[in-house]
Specification:
- Homotetramer.
- Belongs to the chorismate synthase family.
- The protein is α+β, with helices and mostly antiparallel strands and 406 residues long.
- Helices cover 31% and strands 23% of the residues.
- The protein is globular, with a radius of gyration of 23 Å.
- The structure holds ligand EPS.
- The site of ligand EPS has 10 residues, from loops.
Amino acid sequence: LRWLTAGESHGPSLIALLDGVPAGIELTTDDLRAVLARRRLGYGRGARQKFEQDVVRIVSGVRHGVTMGSPLAVEIGNSEWPKWEKVMAADPVARGDLLVDAGTGDEREIARNRPLTRPRPGHADLAGMLKYGLAEARPVLERASARETAARVVAGGIAAALLEQAAGVRLVSHTLAVGPVRVPEDAALPTPEDAARLDEDPLRCFDAGTSQAMVAEVDACQKDGDTLGGVVEVLAYGTPVGLGSHTQWDRRLDGRLAQAVMSIQAMKGVEIGDGFATAARRGSHAHDEIVPTAGAGSAAGTTRVSNRAGGLEGGMSNGQVIRVRGALKPISTVPRALRTVDVATGEAATANHQRSDVCAVAPAAVIAEAVVALTLADALLEKAGGDSVAEIRRHLEATGALQDAA
Ligand code: EPS
């Protein structure tokens, strides 16, 4: 399975392109609308989420609600495009079209097109300007923007449909921390049955008391003109044993999941299972002891007394619930503007700022779920690949890797 995205934040649309999707997955435009709507959830998001609409169109790969095995292209149109048509036009634009009002003779450039010469710390702005030899940040931030994750969420929705329909794998994601407010260590983990309830929570947090404290933290932060990060977790239930491999570095599934999650905008840390907490434990309390199940007598007749490893040992899925966490830095566009340099004049300045989310942790969980789904779907096809859902199921049944949940 291969996937790519294209599109700018204020361009006409984003594109998700998937190649290698098997035939026979049931999938509709409404399914993709539903996954995209989940990405817009979350307390503490900015004004843009309220007015901007995602307009989904499946361009290829699906016929009458079923994938055909051909490349899947999905376009996510941006309802705000008419406001940006000139500023982000692909073709050259007459200077007069970029002035406030050519008719009244107002010669000032429209605000949207003014050069962004005060790079924002934490964003791709400055490194991108230096790398691509640009005098302003617009061409960098348009692609670096987390708006791009809409395309990855669509791609992940397709991957999740494949995982569920071919192998019975189901995913769920939730928020573990917002700033310093964290779910207690011993809190219960959500299951896929809890997904709807999580989507109703303002921060997609499974612990009601903690969620209230998170809302208060977002409010306090907004009042201070500041932004917040946090920690999200993705859980994959029913993953077949043996996805990924210990035999080569780039086949290890934990490494592949880490890359997928780390590549989400604003991610600064990834953990598998208990991750960093494990580093502080002694070995006798760090692993998952193996005990026999009834009628044992082979490697298959075993179970575990814990899941500290997060379902991955030796870079392979071991049949336990896969647990991947991502740590998100606070949004880089800080209302209480940070110091920078105006590169047009070389003078000290404050960073460009118009509007900002206070906290994007809740959508980050949905995005992390999408990239985990893509990575697991890719690994599933390597293990039990086939050209159709039926063929993959036959392969899985033959290997005995399917879990009961399937
Ligand atoms: C983003 C900044 C904000 C977000 C945007 C991602 O946009 P703006 O700076 O134009 O207000 O709203 O996210 C989305 C539009 C989206 O759909 O997720 C950023 O800097 O990454």
